[in-house]
Amino acid sequence: MLKVDHLQAAYGKVQTLWEVGFEVPNGEIVALLGANGAGKTTTLKVLSGLLRPQAGSIMLHGERIDGCSPMEIVRRGIIQVPEGRALFPEMSVIDNLLMGAYATPKAGRGMRLEQIFGIFPRVKERRKQLAGTLSGGEQQMVAIGRGLMADPKLLMLDEPSLGLAPLMVEEVFGVIKEINASGVTVLLVEQNTQHALSLSSRGYVLEAGRVVLSGSGHELLANADVRKAYLGL
User: Fold this and answer.
1) Residues in CB range of 223: below 8 A, 6 or more apart
2) Number of structural domains found in the chain
């Protein structure tokens, strides 16, 4: 589905990605791992069109998209759920969800909304509340729901477990599995290495803007370097 080759990117004169390459096969969950500052969020920004690459290519279903605008990328079905949720706190939950559908036809929005309420019953219960009054876990549900309202083909999740209580972390990863089972391909950026690799069919490890390891989720969980650096084992 998605193929990234020799990707390079920079903020001004500071280069942050160096020859990054990976693939996200259709229908799978792929994890992008690494410490803070490794280049994970920068990679997602480039894939979303928010940051133009200096070099390299991004292919979606065999077509280059690295020159596309963020709007065009959204319309092609690549949707990012940002780190920190980035909700509109003074807007209601339902209005936040509908913001995710701005680039999609009106037909089908009601059905997607009901599907999201089926995945997140608590979001349905709180649909009239201001988003800023929700707990962190509830806000993350709304952020993921907003992404689903865009009818994604590839859903990119940036640190979905960040700041959540352990029980909520389990719930969020269960939802990611459910979303993937419904036919949505997932690119998961996550520092919770154990959960991410247990869920993913494949993973890539970034260090200082470079891919330094790759393999199946099972292989990376068993890798001594990964276990020492990210699992403390």
Assistant:
1) 213, 215
2) 1
